[in-house]
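Sequence in, structure out. Go.
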Amino acid sequence: KDKGTRFIIYLPLTLAVTQAVLVKAAGHTYAIPAVMVEQVQQLKAEPLALAYAERRAQWQSRRYPFHFLPHLLGAHAAQAESRRYSPLLFLRSGSNAIALHVDEIVGSNQEVVVKSIGPQLQRIVGITGATVLGSGEIVLILNPVLLALREVAAAAAAAAPVEVVVPVARPSVM
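Output:
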């Protein structure tokens, strides 16, 4: 009696599992919630170059703002891989939508366990969580539509005139 091994297992109170599309851009893998994906297209070089030039892509008579994923993440020097066909994802989040160019779609409709990302990354708009792939690779779960809105807001703030108030010292009489 009272011999043997005793285990205590602590389980998280909440566990979120979601479907995600795994994409690769600039050598990094990211997850995008599958519910955001309206359409995936494979573009040849000419239509892709036109989308870059116009900064817009069109699908079903609707025009979408066009973005390259690494640029939304601040890697403005990153260049897209040259391929015969390049993936373009049409994404929607609420009433906002974008066309997102990535280098490769690694997996579609992958079931992933959403992990919290901690207080440092929780404040960053557009990063919704992280997951660990079977290979052990840690992958950020992104909302590229929010990243694009953040970029548009930053560009608008940079273009707005800034009023600078310079205090002038006035002589005082005592």
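Check: The mean pLDDT is 87. The two ends are 92 Å apart (CA to CA).
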